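hiii so um. not sure if this is the right channel but i have a protein structure encoded as tokens and i wanna go backwards to a sequence. like what aa goes where. can anyone help
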């Protein structure tokens, strides 16, 4: 995979990870309730769930492109519609929205279980990854390139939420995020709409 294409993959994976939602609320809850380590454990287990869905998507996209190009195109457009819906939802979100989370007593085991369940319990991730990864997967892509895509998605997701967990141990970070939540929603909303348009236009070159 060319470096420029991989950098595009990193950018869109980062945008997906940074979008406010239940995953962010999960890491906030476990970090506030149990401290840094439960938050990090929740982040890493969530990344494993994301990697599982990314793997399923990468393995299935190549077959769809070859055998059912029309179905692949329909699913891709469905993914683009979902990205657009997420973008509109983010733009319409309130000031705090998903950035609000209350701390509850938690353990590392609970954090690991819930981190995995939040990822695997969200089948919309498949649709998200279809739209995302359709820009990068080709029928003749090597196994190494597919592994690179999956690892990139996992590392970006886990790295972002670990950063969130570590940052939240500093008491001033969460209030700072909450005050600026509406700007975070607006920025991610615009970026998601732009990505939806990119998916409709066609694969990245």
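sure thing!! here u go:
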């Amino acid at each position: 995979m060319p470096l420029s294409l991989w950098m595009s993959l990193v950018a869109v994976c980062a945008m997906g990870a940074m979008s406010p939602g239940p995953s962010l609320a999960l890491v906030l809850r476990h970090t506030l309730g149990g401290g840094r380590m439960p938050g990090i454990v929740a982040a890493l287990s969530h990344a494993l769930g994301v990697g599982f869905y990314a793997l399923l998507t990468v393995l299935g996209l190549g077959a769809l492109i070859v055998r059912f190009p029309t179905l692949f195109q329909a699913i891709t457009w469905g993914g683009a519609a979902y990205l657009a819906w997420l973008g509109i939802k983010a733009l319409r979100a309130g000031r705090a929205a998903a950035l609000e989370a209350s701390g509850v007593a938690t353990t590392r085991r609970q954090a690991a279980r819930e981190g995995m369940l939040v990822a695997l319990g969200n089948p919309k991730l498949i649709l998200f990854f279809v739209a995302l990864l359709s820009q990068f997967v080709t029928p003749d892509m090597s196994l190494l390139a597919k592994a690179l895509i999956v690892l990139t998605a996992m590392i970006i997701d886990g790295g972002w939420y670990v950063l969130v967990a570590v940052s939240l141990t500093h008491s001033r970070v969460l209030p700072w995020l909450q005050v600026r939540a509406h700007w975070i929603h607006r920025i991610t909303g615009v970026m998601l709409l732009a990505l939806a348009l990119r998916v409709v236009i066609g694969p990245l070159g």
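oh and Residues 36-67 form the longest helix (32 residues).
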